[in-house]
Amino acid sequence: MKRSSVPTDRLHLWLMLALTFSTGVIDAVGFLGLDRVFTGNMTGNVVLLGMGFAGAADLPILRPALALVFFMVGAALAGRVLRRAPEGWTGRTSATLLVVALGTAGLAVLTVLVDVTAEEMLGSITTSGLALVMGAQAATAKRLKVAEITTVVVTSTITGLASDSRLAGGKSPFWARRAAAIVLILAGAFAGAASLNLGLWVGIALSALLASLVTIIGHTRHRKEKKALRASAADPVSAI
Fold first, then answer.
1. Is the sign of the CA dihedral 35, 41, 44, 49 positive or negative?
2. 43, 67, 78, 84: which has the highest count of C-beta atoms within 10 A?
C-alpha cells in the first residue's frame, strides 16, 4: 500500500493545532468585540461568572452563562454523533466539523448584515452560536485523541510543559506540540484582536475558513486511506 508523505497522526496533529489557533481568534473576538465573553475557553467564562455573581462591577453574567450552556450543548450533540464511530477520523468527524465550519460562516454573515453589537439579544445570539460550534469542535477534537491537544484548553498544556520538563526532572514528552499549542492560541488571540480593526466579521470568517480547510484536508486523507484499505483487501499480494 502506497504511504502518504505525511503520517496520518502527524497530519491530525497539524489540523488540531490549526483549530487551536482558531480558538484564539474566536475568543479574542468574543471577549473584545462582544462584551467580554469567551466562546471557546470555558474556564474564562466560569471565572467571569464567579466574579460577576460576587457583585464585581461591570462584569457580564448573561452572555457568559449562555455561552457556557451552549458550549455544553454543542459538545453533547457532537459527542452523540461520534459516540458509535470508530476511533480516528471518520465520516462523522468530517460531518461534525463541516457543521462547525458552516455554523461559523453563518455567524460571520450575520455580523456582516446586522450590527449585532447594537442590541443585547443579537449579541447574545451571536456569542451563544459561537459557543455552540466551539463546543462541537472541542468534542470532535477530543474524539480524535491527539495527545496533549484539546484545541480549547492551554492551562493543562502549560502545566504539562513545565511539570514534565527537564528542569522539573522529567523527560519533556510532547514538548514541541505543547509549546506549539500555547504559541498558536496566543497568535490566534493576536490575530483576532487585530481583525477587529477591520470588522467583527473578519475574525469569525477566518475561523470558518480554518474549520473548512481542516475538514477538507482531514476528510481527503480519510477517503484515501479508506480506498487504500479496500484495495489491499481486494488484492493483498500487490499491497505487500
1. positive
2. 67
Residue 114 corresponds to which cell in the numbers above?
A: 446586522
Nearest to 15 by CA among 217, 174, 156: 217
Could you tell me which of 12, 158, 197, 30 has the C-alpha nearest to residue 89?
Answer: 12
Q: Where does the chain have alpha helices with state H?
A: 8-28, 42-53, 62-82, 91-113, 120-144, 155-163, 175-195, 200-234
Structure confidence at residue 230 (pLDDT)? 83
pLDDT in tens, 188-234: 999 999 999 999 999 999 999 999 999 999 999 999 998 888 887 77
Other Cβ atoms less than 10 A from the Cβ of 149: the count is 26
d(CA 147, CA 174): 8
Query: pTM for the full model?
Result: 0.91
**Residue 157 corresponds to which cell in the numbers above?**
498544556
From the list 211, 232, 35, the residue with the least C-alpha distance to 117 is 35
Contact by Cβ (8 Å): 19, 141: yes
Measured CA angle at 212 (ends 103, 29), to 5 deg: 60
What cell does 8 get?
496520518
Q: Provide φ and ψ at 151, rounded to 5°.
A: 75, -15
Q: What is the largest CA-CA distance in the chain?
A: 72
Burial of 212 (0-12, 13-18, 19+ CB in 10 A): middle
